[in-house]
Amino acid sequence: MSFFGFGQSVEVEILLNDAESRKRAEHKTEDGKKEKYFLFYDGETVSGKVSLALKNPNKRLEHQGIKIEFIGQIELYYDRGNHHEFVSLVKDLARPGEITQSQAFDFEFTHVEKPYESYTGQNVKLRYHLKDVIVGKIYFLLVRIKIKHMEIDIIKRETTGTGPNVYHENDTIAKYEIMDGAPVRGESIPIRLFLAGYELTPTMRDINKKFSVRYYLNLVLIDEEERRYFKQQEVVLWRKGDIVRKSMSHQAAIASQRFEGTTSLGDVRTPSQLSDNNCRQ
């Protein structure tokens, strides 16, 4: 795995703590076949271990931090590549440093809200999965073009309307020149962007089916003949307070049900999937 397609590869595996004892349910895949996936209910904790193994054990891997994400997303088949996330939780596993040998990190997402059933249909798929993230550096392992300089942009894309009346408006929030001159083989460029000084909002997807706001990192390489090479990566922004309020609201609802001695089908109605295939990249 590498950021922007550069860097040394590392094999990542996610193992659930109760994988042997947890129930499984059959679920239809995109090709119509049925496979068994781990069964989770709304409010259940998801925990396990992330194992990292370098493909070349004689070399080291520098990184700017290791994270794991719990994602709930909707994918429309006619709009592949644009995943609509309704759950997004992040855990930091390691601070910036380097990996010289295989390592494992424990993780736990406590009382995760999984409001919808996992679903695979003709035109849409809803799923839950774990996503590992290693934020690192840009490495130049092989330079075949004469690069003059490199810059990285933060872009806000506002989308309004529906159907044929969709309008996209791009706004460049910030632009940084992160390299001046031709790189040499093996050189690495660290990236650290501080967002506090900019007027940013959380990522918003399909708000009342009327508009969306998304943010992207845009990497631009410019060669000596002024030709430009682009690589774009979406970044998801959220407010910490929103997650805290949701968690407190969920816990308060559970406490209220227990106090009143009532039972709700909402506690057991939403099984979701977490498969080995979904947990690996």
Shape: globular
As a percent range, the share of strand residues is over 45%
Strand count, sense and barrel status of the largest sheet are:
5 strands, antiparallel
Number of strands: 19
Structural class given helices, strands, pairing?
Answer: mainly beta
Estimated radius of gyration: 21 Å
Q: What are the low-pLDDT stretches, counting only 5+ consecutive residues below 50?
A: 1-8, 255-281
Instruction: Output the helix-strand order.
Output: EEEEEEEEEEEEEEEEEEHEH
In percent, how helical is the residue content? under 10%
Mean pLDDT: 72
Helix count equals: 2
**Can you tell me the CATH class of the largest domain?**
Mainly Beta
CATH topology type of the largest domain = Immunoglobulin-like
Number of domains: 2
- Identify the quaternary structure here: single chain
CATH architecture of the largest domain, please? Sandwich
User: What's the N-to-C terminus distance?
Assistant: 8 Å
Q: Quick gist of this model?
A:
The protein has two helices and 19 strands. It has helices spanning 240-260, 276-279, and strands spanning 10-16, 24-28, 34-40, 46-54, 61-63, 66-76, 83-94, 97-99, 103-109, 119-120, 124-134, 137-140, 147-160, 167-180, 187-190, 204-207, 211-223, 228-235, 272-274.
Topology, please?
Layout: E1 10-16, E2 24-28, E3 34-40, E4 46-54, E5 61-63, E6 66-76, E7 83-94, E8 97-99, E9 103-109, E10 119-120, E11 124-134, E12 137-140, E13 147-160, E14 167-180, E15 187-190, E16 204-207, E17 211-223, E18 228-235, H1 240-260, E19 272-274, H2 276-279
Antiparallel strand pairs: 1-4, 2-3, 3-19, 4-9, 5-8, 6-7, 6-11, 10-11, 12-15, 13-14, 13-17, 16-17, 17-18
Pfam families: Vps26
Family: Belongs to the VPS26 family.
Organism: Mandrillus leucophaeus
